[in-house]
Amino acid sequence: MNPADAMQAAQAAPVVDMSLFGLFWQAHFVVKIVMVGLLSASIWCWSIIVDKTLLFRRTEAEMDAFEEAFWSGRSLEELYRSYNDRQPNGLAAVFVAAMREWKRSFEGSGRQVQSLSQRIEKQLDVTIHREVERLESRLLFLASIGSAGPYIGLFGTVWGIMTAFTSIAASKNTSLAVVAPGIAEALFATAIGLFAAIPAVLAYNKLQASVAKSQSRLEGFADEFSAILSRQIDERLSLAA
Amino acid sequence: MRFPKLTFDKSEPGVWISAGTHGALLALALFAVAAPALPNAEEGVPVEVLTEQQFSELTRGERNADKPQEKPNKADRVADKVEEREPENAKVDTPAPPTRTAEMKLASVDEIPLRADTPDPAKEEAAAAAAKAAAAKAEAEKAAAARAEAKAKAEAAAKAEKAEAAKREELQKLVEREEAEAAAKEAAKKAAEAKAKAEAKAKAEAKAKAEAEAKAEAEAEKKLAEAKAKADAEAKAKAEATAKAEAAAKAKAKAMAEAKAKADAEAKAKKQAELANKYSPGDIRQLLANKAPSQSTGSTGREVQRTASLGTSTGNAQKLSPSMRDALVGMLQQQIERCYSAPPGATQGIILPMLDIKLNPDGSLTTEPRIMRGGASAVDQSIAQAALRAVRRCAPYKIPSQFAPYYNDWKAINAEFEFSRV
User: pTM (2 decimals)?
Assistant: First the structure.
């Protein structure tokens, strides 16, 4: 290749805009979709992270407040009345569910005390399950993004590299100046994928640990409370007998 | 999956916070962290491709030469007769520059520059002393003359005759003294003559001149004396006497000055002659310059070409490159293998036999192949013998022409051959 040709080729080489917006705009349609999808996934992930963090903090505070009230020596009836009005969360929900079943058993004419203990256990279990589910909801999305995000980004990258090589073949020029921009914009997709996935994985692990902690706390309280209630039931049975 | 309401909920502000943060980050990345402009794309530099032949040539010769030379710059044999003429053995000497000849006139002494530009200070001193002595002598003479004059003046009135006689006597004395001086100089010159002819001649000439001048002076003096005598005889007046005395004094002074000038010239000429004959180490250069530079025409058989040679394609002892050697051995093995039949019952030997195969340029065997190294076991021995038979049977071998230049290297091949058990 003589110098004149080389000069022409250099001039003909595409001027590459390496800014973020430029990289996005030059990308193939599929890669664009991948990028937009990953970006919205990232936004959604962070919104979940923020919401869940706030929710757990709130739940923790409510549990602390309830435990304090529970062990303050107030009568169970009083507590039930004060918590039944509002939508109870966490420990309060467990307490209210158990108390409701207790009260229902002693309402009306007949006393159904025989299997009351079992019913209360069931109620406690169901309530705990419901509470944990509420805490856990949407965390799975974080897990999915954490594991699938890089793959989605990689898909965009592979697609971008394919188109880049097609353009290389079209330009009949193997210089790095022709190859590099396509690969760079393709790799941009993987970058966005990682950008979405890394916080998702970290947050998922952290939030999952918080859920486990809350669940064990709920279960502990439920056991304690069911012990108290069964003692009450036994007392009443012995009184009745 | 439950999506949050798009209205702002105080308990779940995640969507809004997340979207806002992402937007801010994107804006920051777009405007603040703009990618730097890429440099202009440049074409790659073309790479020179060497053939194997060129590469093997490169491995010979000198590393920093420009290109291989057509002819090796070393003579194949040393010339029978080395032709090298040193300056001493030159056929023709360059003519020596003219030196100062003895016949050179004294008058031209001034035109010839002194050989030594800086005269010897001692010599200079001696010259200065001589000049001083001469001046002192002249002064003494002048003083004597003045005295005589004064005496003459004093005595002129009373005894003109006496004064005249005294003057004459004085003159006589002067002449005598001068003559004595001349004689002394003559003696000195004669001594110098024994030393060098040039000096002697110059001196002789100078002496002759001095004598002539002295004679002329004496004559002038005589004439003066005669004139004086005549004047005395004619008139014996005081004024005349004084006038005569004055004239005599003047003439005497003139003679003195002439004598002095002559003496100076003589001294100078003497010095010149001495310097011309004296050996001076600084003149060795001049002596050497008499000879012409070396007239050597260059050696025939010696290595005279100093340009570096980047290998040569015609020099002897070309070496096979390792890859070429491998290729050649592989080719031979392939050809030998066709004739090889494994000895019955022999499994693959442990030690591969190393064969020594001597080849002609056309690929035929020069001598019987030999086993260079083989195993001691019966199996190894039988395999080696089978290989020998195969080598013998397959000759001549086809060797590609590209190996022809390296025949020196492959005319004897020692290699291990491994044959599959056919």
Answer: 0.42
